[in-house]
Amino acid sequence: GGGGVHAEYNFLRLEKRTNWGDIFQTLVELVKVNKQHVNDLFRKYDYDHSNALETNEVFQFLKALVPRASAADTIYFRVMLGMEDDEVIDFNALLDSIATAGQVGDAVRRKENGAVEGLLSKLG
């Protein structure tokens, strides 16, 4: 089987993930389970209160949200977001990118090349 994400006492807990190859699948599940907690973490790591995360803040946010994320997951996350060192991303853009990257991962697993190309163009 797969894995599961569970909300307990308003906290997210990653139960089990057997496919660590797609961090976005996990992130999509986390957003579905408790978007408010994801938003709270976003605000926590927005140190300058700009309503956007800088690259280093994004990685801290990711590690807080998915503590078992590997270095490879972190790199994949950055590549799929298309963030350069000096860029920022707001909460809605982050959610949109997570959703789109999750769809790309699903399409790749199903080997739907046309869908992958169309979705990748949305990521920029």
From TrEMBL:
Stored InterPro entries: EF-hand-dom_pair, EF_Hand_1_Ca_BS, EF_hand_dom
Cited Gene3D superfamilies: EF-hand (1.10.238.10)
GO molecular function: calcium ion binding
Record carries keyword Ion transport: no
Domain EF-hand: 33-68
Keyword Calcium appears in the UniProt entry: yes
Protein keywords: Calcium
Name by which UniProt lists this protein: EF-hand domain-containing protein
Organism: Tetraselmis chuii
Phylogenetic lineage: Eukaryota, Viridiplantae, Chlorophyta, core chlorophytes, Chlorodendrophyceae
